[in-house]
Amino acid sequence: MRISVHAGTLRRSAVATMLAAALVAAPVTMTAAAAAPTAAASQVRAIVPAAKSPIKTFKNCTALNKTYKGGVARAGVTHNTVSGKKKPFKVKPYVSTALYNANKKMDRDKDGIACEKR
C-alpha cells in the first residue's frame, strides 16, 4: 500500500512540475505574440473613421438651393406646410437637423424646412 501511495505522490509531483513549467513558459509565449501584431490586427488599426464635414451656413436660399434642390429639412418633417395646410413636397428636401439648424433663419414659415420649393 505504501508503494502505491508513493507512486501516486510521485505522479502528482511530476504533473505539478510539468504544470508549473507550462505556466512559467506561457507568459513568455504570450508576450512574444503580443509584441508582434498580426496582419489582421494591423489592418484593423489602419481603418480611420471618416472626418465629419463642417456644417455649412449659406448666405441665402439661392445659394442653398444650388446644393440642395428641395431645401433642407430637420428630421421628422413629413410634409410642407403652406398657409396652414399640409402639402406634398414638389422636390424632396435633404434631411439634416444640424444643417437645418445652421440655416434656420431661412425658414420663414417655420415649418421645419429651410428654402423649400413650393
Describe the 3D structure.
With 118 residues, this protein is mostly helical. It folds into two domains: 2-46; 61-114, no CATH class. The chain contains four helices and five strands; from the N terminus they run H-H-H-E-E-E-E-H-E. It has helices spanning 2-35, 39-46, 61-67, 97-102, and strands at 72-73, 80-82, 85-87, 94-95, 113-114. The strands form two sheets. Strands 4-1-5 form a three-stranded mixed β-sheet. A two-stranded antiparallel ribbon has the order 2-3.
List keywords for this structure.
single chain, 118 residues, mainly alpha, 2 domains, three-stranded mixed sheet, two-stranded antiparallel sheet, 4 helices, 47% helix, signal
Question: What's this, in brief?
Answer:
It comes from Microbacterium gawkjiense. The protein has 118 residues and is mainly alpha-helical.
